[in-house]
Design brief:
Blueprint: H1 20-30, H2 35-42, H3 46-54, H4 63-77, H5 81-88, H6 106-134, E1 192-197, E2 201-207, E3 212-218, E4 223-227, E5 231-237, E6 242-246, E7 249-250, E8 257-258, E9 261-266, E10 272-274
Antiparallel strand pairs: 1-4, 1-6, 2-3, 2-5, 5-9, 6-7, 8-9, 9-10
């Protein structure tokens, strides 16, 4: 169980009993439990129980996960958590002050939106101005009611001319019509995955190509956003203190929880699936 008061000094142990893994194994055997019993009680794989007893921390991920699983195992066996964590040699880590690579400052977003609108205005003007100049009344060809002096007055004038019969004027001016189709707007926001911290939580975000987008301890009140197209795998320690939203809609982390750690993958379409063991 958790200790709220000062840490009590550990009782004298033989040299072979000073490792936390050996103490866990002996306490488990003294309680008449198998590794399978512990795994079922703590809802963790047997391989994790074996790694804790072997002190093989490299198989358990980040230090914050190791410390949490070690505390859970110690509480189950009635051992004091503080001495067990100290005996493990897994030190606490300082949170890294990382800035997500996908973060875009508000001023940069505003500048990009204004640039897109300016391009739209310039393209529209480039289409409308020539059409307006071509359809001005002064640009139409005017046929004058005249004829050469050598032609008799009663003879019709052929070609692009007029005859004395006003009903036979051979003119066929056709208006020029331009069709302007509005350009589609490209300012729609991309689908995103957002995290809101209600308490301190370790976060590991991996891209689809294996790059690490975020690996740090985020403090209560912090918020992070990631384009769904960039996210591949998400691991959240202390998952009950993290609010996850997909395109603004809350996400239920229950299907992905195990020992208060949520692990899930994100598809290119934005669907979430548990990480396969």
């Amino acid at each position: 169980m958790n200790q709220s008061g000062p840490t009590l000094p550990a009782s004298p142990l033989a040299d072979g009993d000073r490792g936390c893994g050996i103490r866990l194994r002996k306490a488990r055997e003294g309680a008449g439990m198998t590794q399978a019993d512990v795994a079922a009680r703590l809802k963790m794989p047997i391989a994790v129980v074996q790694s804790l007893e072997d002190e093989d921390w490299s198989r358990l991920g980040a230090p914050v996960f190791v410390r949490g699983q070690l505390r859970s195992y110690s509480r189950l066996l009635g051992l004091m958590t503080a001495p067990m964590v100290a005996a493990s040699g897994v030190a606490s880590i300082e949170p890294a002050n990382l800035v997500p690579r996908t973060y875009t400052p508000p001023m940069q977003r505003l500048t990009e939106q204004l640039a897109r609108r300016l391009v739209y205005i310039v393209l529209t003007a480039a289409i409308i101005v020539p059409v307006w100049l071509a359809t001005r009344p002064g640009s139409a060809v005017i046929a004058h009611d005249s004829a050469p002096l050598e032609v008799p007055a009663n003879a019709p004038v052929t070609g692009f001319g007029v005859s004395n019969d006003r009903s036979r004027v051979q003119t066929d001016p056709r208006p020029l019509v331009a069709s302007l189709t509005p350009m589609p707007s490209s300012g729609a926001p991309a689908p995103e995955l957002s995290l809101q911290m209600k308490a301190d939580s370790w976060v590991l975000i991996s891209a689809r190509d294996g790059r690490t987008l975020q690996q740090s301890l985020l403090r209560a009140g912090e918020q992070r956003r990631y384009p769904i197209a960039d996210v591949g795998v998400v691991v959240l320690g202390n998952a009950s203190a993290v609010s996850v939203r997909r395109n603004g809609e809350p996400v239920d982390l229950t299907p992905f929880l195990r020992s208060n750690v949520a692990r899930f993958t994100v598809s290119s379409a934005g669907s979430l699936s548990p990480v396969a063991n």
